[in-house]
TrEMBL record:
InterPro entries: Cys_synth, Cys_Synth/Cystath_Beta-Synth, CysM, P-phosphate_BS, TrpB-like_PALP, TrpB-like_PALP_sf
Signal sequence, start to end: none
Domain Tryptophan synthase beta chain-like PALP: 20-297
Name under which the protein is recorded: Cysteine synthase
Catalyzed reactions: O-acetyl-L-serine + hydrogen sulfide = L-cysteine + acetate
Length: 312
């Protein structure tokens, strides 16, 4: 971490670049929820709190790496306009980095995304275009805008810098934080950058680490994760590194989102509830396991949905 120290007769002030605040997020052990679920006390369920990143989600890692690497290669330069299709968190993270680096950015987002996400993007100065037809249409429209000369698409879905961010940071952090004892890693799958990058790193350290990906079931609509049609499957996805893909029911994901908040004090979104549910299933089946899962973001991005006020 780079820092600058200013001294005077009365104080020392240490300042840090915002870029240095991305990553090194806490890994915390669940305590009460495993007891409620009758999971063996020997099983460790560990939540990686990605909401602690500066723009509030795991996508901060990919956003920084995609923009910084594009700058290093000369793919983008001052004055260029960036374009990206997003369901929310990547857009917020890219808007933050674009603001830091001085790039105008246009984000295309499905209309059914939460108001908090839309407002956060605008707060960073992004231009937001809402798309009625969903995420696939947003991706197509972004590429058409690039073809029309309106800007440069970073393309998180097919950009290796996305998953490389997690190979270089998230994976090593998990390995170090568990002292190499991690047995299972669970991640919801959207762009698939997180699971692909982490899986590659963890499998290099120990091929026996099990990688579990989560997708919504056929009837679910869970913010931030997708059940992609074959034509839109992200190009960065490395299926060979994923040992199991679990389907998640929407009501179950929402219930476990509330359980995280009420039983553990972890205020997170619906995809994180899905990951917590999966961790419980894996933990029940694997006593003595060390199971880490990604808590993608913070729950304040979902308050307008009213989901936290529901009694289970």
């Amino acid at each position: 971490m780079s820092s600058h120290v200013t001294t005077s007769a009365n104080f020392i002030t240490q300042t840090t670049a915002l870029a240095d605040c991305v990553g090194q997020t806490p890994l915390v052990r669940l305590r009460r929820l495993p007891e409620e679920e009758n999971i063996s006390p020997n099983t460790q369920l560990l939540a990686k709190l990605e909401g602690n990143n500066p723009a509030g989600s795991v996508k901060d890692r990919a956003a920084f790496n995609m923009i910084y690497q594009a700058e290093k290669r000369g793919d983008i330069k001052p004055g260029d306009t960036l374009i990206e299709a997003t369901s929310g968190n990547t857009g917020i993270a890219l808007a933050m980095v674009a603001a830091m680096r001085g790039y105008p950015i246009t984000l295309l987002m499905p209309t059914n995304s939460t108001q908090e996400r839309k407002d956060a993007m605008k707060a960073y100065g992004a231009i937001l275009i809402e798309v009625d037809e969903g995420m696939e249409a947003a991706r197509d429209q972004a590429l058409q805008m690039q073809a029309d000369g309106l800007g440069i698409v970073l393309d998180q879905f097919n950009n290796d810098d996305n998953k490389e961010a997690h190979y270089l940071t998230t994976g090593p952090e998990l390995w170090q934080q568990t002292e190499g004892r991690i047995t299972h890693f669970i991640s919801s799958m959207g762009t698939t950058g997180t699971i692909s990058g982490v899986a590659r790193y963890l499998k290099e350290q120990n091929p026996d680490v099990k990688i579990i990906g989560l997708q919504p079931d056929e009837d679910a609509s869970i913010a931030g994760i997708r059940r992609w049609p074959a034509a839109y499957m992200p190009g960065i996805f490395d299926a060979e590194l994923v040992d199991e893909v679990m389907d998640v029911n929407q009501s179950v994901a929402e219930r476990y989102m509330r359980k995280l908040a009420r039983s553990e004090g972890i205020f997170a979104g619906v995809s994180s509830g899905a990951a917590a549910w999966a961790a419980m299933q894996i933990g029940t089946a694997n006593p003595d396991a060390v199971i880490a899962f990604i808590v993608c973001d913070r729950g304040d991005r979902y308050l307008s949905t009213g989901l936290f006020g529901i009694e289970d």
